[in-house]
Amino acid sequence: MKMLFENHSFSTTRCMEFRDVTDDVRSTVERSGVSNGMALVYSPHTTCAIVINEKESGFIRDFETLVRRLVPQDASYLHDDLTLRTENLEDDDHDVPNGHAHCAQGLLASASQAIPIVDGTLQLGRWQRVFFLELDRARDRRVLIQVLGE
Amino acid sequence: MKMLFENHSFSTTRCMEFRDVTDDVRSTVERSGVSNGMALVYSPHTTCAIVINEKESGFIRDFETLVRRLVPQDASYLHDDLTLRTENLEDDDHDVPNGHAHCAQGLLASASQAIPIVDGTLQLGRWQRVFFLELDRARDRRVLIQVLGE
Amino acid sequence: MKMLFENHSFSTTRCMEFRDVTDDVRSTVERSGVSNGMALVYSPHTTCAIVINEKESGFIRDFETLVRRLVPQDASYLHDDLTLRTENLEDDDHDVPNGHAHCAQGLLASASQAIPIVDGTLQLGRWQRVFFLELDRARDRRVLIQVLGE
């Protein structure tokens, strides 16, 4: 059994940025030497998602409109009410309201995506790209890529 | 290749209960002896989801509000209309309406979550916890944890 | 380590068709000879999802109603505005509007599902079936099934 784990760091620039990490995943698969197996793409953050879809700017703006309509950014969230909050106050960032981002992450429920590898090739479809989706604001982020197989 | 499968049973107490199963997953990883690989956390139920997010009571109530707004519990669901229903009537519980819970599960589309394991450590982010989310009512439930790697 | 990868082709007949692929997955698991491990069920398309839920026609119609309410098919999507679009125009099908289908796929965020295998048995719950969900229109499609374990 072969395995390779990589941690790729970067900074996002805004809420609803679709960061294309497809080439990161493909190069990890290449370096792993795995011919048949799977790649697990994982976000260790509570306000980001891994999404596989088409890289087309119209869709990306449509999806932003949809998420903002279903989970309004300016609604009132208990997560953001510091007069009520007693947990996780050691988070340096808890004074920046991001209840909407936690809710959007929960709705997408997609901290990871797993993709088959066959004959050394990631089995993405013709139009599929792997995106790290920022649901909060510009922040330092990481994507974890775990390849396993033979 | 090492593998360990565990089936953890418990009872939920109400709709939208977030049951924290992080320690169950961590202890299965420890018992497995797997240093590098992945943990698959799986719900075998059609009205529950596995969700990874922050354990903060404000967020948990915000998310309940969001799910109830998008999938109202008291709307009319064909799944609950026993005058129409011809399938799966051997389910002892089909007389308790839970069409909303099936729809919420479909929307989250999250029967499982997979998490990388590196150097014996589950790669959860600082604020991430793994939750078994009850979308139906108080019921006997199971979460399946499959660890594989080396 | 044992592995088996299969590519199953078929045609869908309409938007929101739930195609039951449970028997495809079970037969791939059988052919693989894997006793303990996992099955990864993957859609290589940007307008389809893999969903695990109950096979009950009331629920299936309820879910169609929900998706259409949250992501209206006849709303205006930038993805469908060919006067603006500059990317991926080599797609033969780009003249058929399917922005709603991309958005619904993004919302479900579910290109794949992973299911544990124990003692040669796929660990689906009593009421769980694995569906390939068509979010676009009648099209030629594929589902990829990757089984790995021992």
3D architecture notes:
The structure is a homotrimer of 150-residue chains. Chain A is an alpha+beta fold and 150 residues long. Chain A is built from three helices and eight strands; from the N terminus they run E-E-H-E-E-H-H-E-E-E-E. Chain A has helices at 22-32, 57-70, 99-108; strands spanning 2-11, 18-20, 37-42, 48-53, 112-118, 121-122, 129-134, 140-149. In chain A, the strands form two sheets. Chain A has a five-stranded antiparallel beta sheet, covered by helices on one side. A three-stranded antiparallel beta sheet of chain A has the order 2-7-4. Chain A binds chain B through residues 1, 3, 5, 40, 42-46, 70-71, 77-81, 84-88, 91, 99, 102-103, 105-107, 109-112, 114, 144, 146, 148, and chain B through 1, 36-38, 49, 51-59, 61-63, 66, 70, 107-110, 113-116, 118, 123-128, 149-150.
Give the SSE map.
The structure is a homotrimer of 150-residue chains.
Chain A: E1 2-11, E2 18-20, H1 22-32, E3 37-42, E4 48-53, H2 57-70, H3 99-108, E5 112-118, E6 121-122, E7 129-134, E8 140-149
Antiparallel strand pairs in A: 1-8, 2-7, 3-5, 3-8, 4-7, 5-6
Radius of gyration of chain A: 17 Å
Which strand order does the major sheet of chain A show? 1-8-3-5-6
- Calculate the terminal CA-CA distance of chain A, rounded to whole Å: 5 Å
Give the helix tally of chain A: 3
Label the structural class of chain A: alpha+beta
Overall pLDDT confidence of chain A: 95
Tell me the total number of β-strands of chain A.
8
H/E element sequence of chain A: EEHEEHHEEEE
**Rough outline of chain A:** globular
Helicity level of chain A: 10-25%
Proportion of strand residues of chain A = 25-35%
Could you state the oligomeric state of the chains shown? homotrimer
